[in-house]
Amino acid sequence: MRSALGGGLGLRLELHFSAMQKTMDPYDAPESTPRQHPSCSLKEYFLAATPLQRRLESVRKQATSFVPTPPRRRIPQRSQLQEDVDPQKVAFLLHKQWTLYSLTPLYKFSYTNLKEYSRLLSAFITAEKQKGLAVEVGEDCNIKVVFSTLLGMKGTQSDPEAVLVQILSKPQLPSEDREAKALWTGWFCCVFGDGLLETVSEDFTCLPLFLANGAESNTAIIGTWFQKTFDCYFSPLAINAFNLSWMAAMWTACKMDRYVAATEFLWSVPCSPQSLDISYAIHPEDAKALWDSVHRTPGEVTQEEVDLFMDCLSSHFYRHFRIHLSATRLVRVSTSVASAHTDGKIKIICHKYLIGVLAYLTELAIFQIE
Amino acid sequence: MHAVMMPQKTGKNYQAQNRPSQGSSSYQTNLSACEVKQKPSDSKENNPMQDDEHADDQDGDVLQIAMEYFEKDPIRSLRSKDKILEKHLITVENVAWKNGLAPETIDILLNVALSGRFGNAVNTRILKCLIPATLISEDSVVKAVSWLCVGKCSGSTKVLFYRWLIAMFDFIDHKEQINLLYGFFFASLQDDVLCPYVCHLLYLLTKKENVKPFRVRKLLDLQAKMGMQPHLQALLSVYKFFVPTLISVSLPVRKKIYFKNSENLWKTALLAVRQRNQGLCPEPRKLMLGPANIRPLKRKWNSHSIIPVLNSSSHTTECGKKEMNLSEYLSSSGSLPLEQLQRFPQLLENIHCLELPSQMGSVLNNSLLLHYINCIRDESVLLRLYHWLSQTLQEECVWYKVNNYENGKEFASFLDTIIRAESFLHEGFYSCEAFLYKSLPLWDGFCCRSQVLQLVSWIPFNNFSEMKPLLFDHLAHLFFTSTIYFKCSIIESLKELLQNWLLWLSKDIHVKPVTDSPLDTSLCESMNSVFKLVHYVGWLSTIGMRLESNSTFLMHFILDFFETACDIYLIYNLPLVVLFPRAIFYSALFTLDASILNQLCYIMHRYHKNLTAAKKNELIQKAKSKLSFSSKTYKEFNCCLTTMVGCLWTSKPFKKGIRFSPETLEKLGVEEHKRSLNLVYHSSLLGYAVSFLLQETPEEKTINLSSIQGKKWNLYLDYLFSEELQGLKLFIESCIRRSSVS
């Protein structure tokens, strides 16, 4: 079903993006190391304001709600990428479907050991793939693992550098000159992860958002290796309807030079045996016009605005089709900025808002691990 | 939305199926005849099934008769023919669609369906309604497969059986035996009709060790014969996944749907049964919970148990130093690999050079390492454990995600492990506290009940007011809406929580150097938290007693709690005395049960001791008087004490407090009301008084209770004390000067 929002929504407001403020970096000052606290028992330990204690406090604050707390967020800003980002690498991240995971802080991860990690992980993958094999394999496993950093892929200076892991297939013949093909790609990042950074000590590296593209069996092997090596924990990061609505609103609010895709929503009607999906596509400019008419605070998105935006869409739909979308479940949102599925799949389309999208995903990942 | 709609849907199906048969009068009469035969005294037949429970009972009985019918020898069944068979089939179908069938029932019916005793139509109907209530036993499946070898059932029955097996695969309790039949199933691939279904089954069943070169060859032959069939490709892809080197053919990578949806026949029923069994949480929350089909990674990612296996840290050996030469290796021999740590002395000797496990979660299963983490000061160790435990709890929690109830047992045993570790360490984990905050609002109060309540009792000491909206308010909701047993369990776990808090606080006070500052705010705040906890339990108890109409059973648990609460000052050496609510005091005082009265006396005795000691201490340390008890507490207690002594001892009840006008008493016809609550006439002690008199003068025919006076009163008291009423004894000895009474 396709419906168009007509010209009744003629009200158009220009969004004025405030220039990005230079964020003060509170973590430049050396943090007092937790070992300085004298303590003699686990319990006493927590009396001091250790990172763990701070973390628990934030959990207590959050526990009252099931959704991330801030009732307002900034609209993703353009060109937040740092200068040193490799444009080729960024292009490589776009237009791919990524499966999202949240990841607890990595223990004793070191950016200087990436080469070593490449070696260890490729050995691990080879061992895993040959485990319990009935037949003797003489040849070397024809894969290669590469760890590298995605410089500049972060929100503030205190965010750790993003890490890219690739499994490449080695060319069968050494003489062959063709480029190694990526069998599997995954990357770890942290964009505006201040809240999490505050609660860990320097032994840990916080890269709470993990995105994978490739066979799930590979994700499993690599995830297992990371869990074993850095004592971290991967959980699939699903995006519930509430957060999808936020994404819809925030991405609609982004100012685009050119729209490449319709703004589309997918609602699922839970009925059996087969569930029924309702796809609701709107011309992106109409969506923007609707957004502008509900939008009040410049540069920010508030919960009320998100609710109002979605309510408007639902009531418009109801007028035409007599179906209450509020009784169904929002499962996918796609815009020209990015598209997200409730299963925890994301595809980022617009280069300009990459950091903005990642910032929100980081927030969701942190919410999940807290 | 989902959960609400499903049962309705099946409900309709179920009715629709029945309607034609209910129309037939023979069914009606047969059914009622059966009922009468079975339960001649049951007169409820006339009421059409209005009452659900009653309906369920009936279903059970009728089902039993039906099962007896199916179990009977084949000849008679064949002779008695259609109508009875039809009736029993309908019974089975009804129960199956409504509540699911027990494993034993499924066992019998599978046997019937595959043994070829009935025609195809009947077999089909039976197979279609084989919906488990909970699980299917593996043995039944193995037996059923053995029928396939006999060749008594038709091809279509075989197909249906395979489809059923695929649909129910997840409900089979074990799969080891079935996996042993792998070769048999594999041989069935020859059958062109069965092939797609057998492929699907093998796809589910295949383990790495099942992948053999000869099987690969066979599959490739089949593929050459039949062309690129999606089901064969699926099986090949599983093989290739396990042993990539064996299969050189290229398979389409992105193919998602290999199989026709075999379970469609049962899908609705299974969902409905599962949801009914588990009683999912109420609707509005669910939209927030995210998609149902996100499975925990553990099941997909290799590991067999939730808790990781103990391994020495890989950081020192692998990542830290790149290439370790032999001499370095030898010089580092000081460190002890965890795998070698077996006994406590070993831990003591090597505690300075112990290698930490690579995954901190593994300490949960190792008591030596629990000792270790209890005394180390490394924050990162605790953080690692915290992160791992928080995420694992969240990921595994069966009610946190929709439709995740199959793993309930595993989750419960995981919680048991955590609780064991907590009681071993005598302290709670912070992850568990955070987990409770997040998950308790969604908890149905049923799933893993004892584990959750134990976790509650291990919550580390905290500011009560902060915790109340996160935890105690939710607990109160559950308390008020649940059965009396649940109420008792909650009160009991709150008692344990209070004990744990008091122990920790009393230890804490002694560890800290005593500061003489007049404003010891932290202690004040701590005492305030404890006060609020006791107050909260008092509030719960008061309402609970009203809801359960003064149940003696519940009262026992409440008084148990106050037995701990009344002794805070003396036993835990903490400056706090909190009284129980008046409602609890009065309903314990007017009880019909001597043990309740006894417990009340004991608590009053302990309160008396605590308050006296506190008063004495206060007089000594008057200058400091950090925490003076409010005079209100003393007044309250004295009022209770006066009432109690007035009732039980001096027969002058209610000088203060409750007062009845003489007219009211006259109306009630209680002339001797003053005496009626004393030790002789008290409703809970009357029996003792009577048996005391009978013991004294067995030959007397009439019993004169008023004769228990003076000397006899003292003898009666000794008699009561000899009857194990210790609390009463302590109370009378400490609170009443007996010499004043003659």
From TrEMBL, chain A:
Main localization of the protein described in the UniProt heading: nucleus
Pfam families: CENP-L (PF13092)
Annotated region (Disordered), positions in chain: 61-81
One GO CC term on file: inner kinetochore
Alphabetized UniProt keyword annotations: Centromere, Chromosome, Nucleus
InterPro entries given in the database record: CENP-L (IPR025204)
Subcellular location as annotated: Chromosome, Centromere; Nucleus
PANTHER family reported in the protein's UniProt record: CENTROMERE PROTEIN L
Similarity section: Belongs to the CENP-L/IML3 family.
Protein name: Centromere protein L
Protein species of origin: Oryctolagus cuniculus
TrEMBL record, chain B:
Database matches in InterPro entries: CENP-I
Region (Disordered): 1-57
Primary localisation category: nucleus
Compartments, as annotated in UniProt: Chromosome, Centromere; Nucleus
Compositionally skewed regions (Polar residues) per UniProt: 10-32
Single Gene Ontology BP annotation: mitotic sister chromatid segregation
UniProt KW Nucleus keyword: yes
Pfam families attached to this UniProt entry: CENP-I
Keywords, sorted A to Z: Centromere, Chromosome, Nucleus
Ranges of compositional bias, category Basic and acidic residues: 36-45
Any single Gene Ontology cellular-component annotation: inner kinetochore
Classification via PANTHER family: CENTROMERE PROTEIN I
Family listed: Belongs to the CENP-I/CTF3 family.
Stated name of the protein: Centromere protein I
Underlying gene: CENPI
